[in-house]
Design goal:
Layout: H1 7-13, H2 54-66, E1 71-75, H3 78-86, E2 94-98, H4 103-113, E3 119-123, H5 128-134, E4 139-145, H6 157-167, E5 170-174, H7 179-182, E6 192-196, E7 210-214, H8 217-230, H9 236-246, H10 249-269, E8 273-277, H11 287-293, E9 300-305, H12 310-319, E10 324-325, E11 335-337, H13 349-354, E12 362-365, H14 371-386
Parallel strand pairs: 2-3, 2-4, 4-5, 5-6, 10-11
Antiparallel strand pairs: 1-7, 6-7, 8-9, 9-12, 11-12
Helix pairs in contact: 2-9, 3-4, 10-14, 12-14
């Protein structure tokens, strides 16, 4: 039996093989919509690029490998991947979701699928009893983000997986913030792992894509059918870019984690900062769970300036010079955002503030620059509050 590769090797070799045509080490970009056939039905695995494309297949094999799954699916975006999962459900079905999640996920649930008769219950999943109470006879899916966006809450995947199996419902985990470098939900009992591959997997802010990874063949077959029938597939060029990004995922994540810790501790000690949300702090809620299910604590941090208002938070993010004020996260460059007016603007103010997404909250995606440059940049921006 061939010895399995360790993670750092899987990012480069996992599921990959030299191109069958010319032996290219990197999978070529098969920029084609269709494939020639010698006779009707003799398509040799590929017939039309919505149904399958060699470049996308290479990416899907890589997805499965790095998450220790069996089947990978590549989509046009993370939301397209989520859309496919929601299409496993029928009117009358219910989903239990964390109450602290990405605004686009909330919008998809409430504005797109709720009108079709699917009900969503949003609960604080740090308290496992809340999840148990929310599960009813019509519950078909539990949707988890951990760490959550943007409050960095940690949810016990293994415990939720046991609960899901007890009630015979599916468990899907959005693993975008952690990446499989830090956390592999399938190994902890999840049924489906989702990524916005736009973020850390691509890693260079130059592509939009999504991923699903599963182990069960029946579930995979249903999702492959939805992927093909709905058509929100990842194109060959985008597949190539994500695959290229994955090859450096492990070294990038090491630096994201190193820089993230330095920034988090700088902010925690800064007199102009009230609260910092980062799962690496020993007093962070469920820190012990994070230590158990994650290899490290990542490069995502949120914080609230001391006594800051909406205007103060905006003043800070506008004053940053090394951090870029922009949507998204997970690129090599450091980004800063104001969730209330950017990523989570689609969530009603009353709802988002219940989970801590206040008008003064700032979210950072810490990149791989020199940490001292990032610290100095934050310091000069925070000094505006002390002036």
């Amino acid at each position: 039996m061939k010895k399995p590769l360790r993670f750092n090797s899987k990012t480069i070799h996992g599921g990959q093989q030299p191109d069958k045509a010319y032996g290219a080490v990197m999978p070529p970009i098969y920029q084609t919509s269709t494939f020639a056939q010698d006779s009707p039905g003799s398509h040799k695995g590929f017939e039309y690029s919505r149904s399958g494309n060699p470049t996308r297949s290479a990416l899907e094999a890589s997805f499965a490998s790095i998450e220790n799954g069996t089947y990978g699916l590549a989509f046009a975006s993370g939301l397209a991947a989520m859309d496919a999962v929601m299409k496993l459900l029928s009117p009358g079905d219910e989903v239990v979701s964390t109450n602290d999640l990405y605004g686009g996920s909330y919008r998809l649930f409430r504005k797109v699928f709720e009108p079709f008769g699917i009900r969503f219950r949003f609960v604080d999943m740090r308290d496992l009893s809340r999840i148990e109470e929310a599960i009813g006879p019509n519950t078909r899916l539990i949707w988890v983000e951990t760490p959550t966006n943007p409050m960095m809450n940690i949810i016990d995947i293994q415990a939720v997986a046991a609960m899901a199996k007890k009630h015979q419902v599916l468990l899907a985990v959005d693993n975008t913030f952690a990446t499989p470098y830090l956390q592999r939900p399938l190994e902890l009992g999840a049924d489906i792992v989702m990524h916005s591959a736009t973020k850390y997997l691509g890693g260079h802010s130059d592509v939009v894509a999504g991923a699903l990874i599963v182990r069960d063949q029946e579930l995979a077959d249903k999702l492959y059918f939805i992927q093909n029938a709905s058509g929100a597939v990842c194109g060959p060029m985008d597949s190539y870019l994500v695959l290229r990004g994955i090859k450096t995922l492990h070294v990038r994540m090491q630096r994201h984690c190193e820089n993230g810790e330095q920034i988090a501790r700088f902010l925690q000690a800064h007199p102009a900062v009230d609260r910092v949300f980062w799962p690496g702090f020993e007093d962070h809620p469920n820190h012990a769970i994070a230590k158990t299910q994650m290899l490290g604590f990542g490069g995502m941090i949120s914080f609230v300036p001391r006594g800051a208002s909406y205007r103060d938070a905006v003043k800070i993010v506008e004053a940053l010079r090394v951090f870029t004020l922009a949507e998204s996260l997970g690129g090599v460059e450091s980004l800063a955002g104001h969730p209330a007016s950017m990523t989570h603007a689609s969530i009603p103010k009353e709802e988002r503030e219940k989970s801590g997404v206040t008008d003064s909250l700032i979210r950072l995606s810490v990149g791989i620059e020199d940490a001292q440059d990032l610290i100095e940049d934050l310091g000069q921006a925070l000094s505006l509050l002390e002036a």
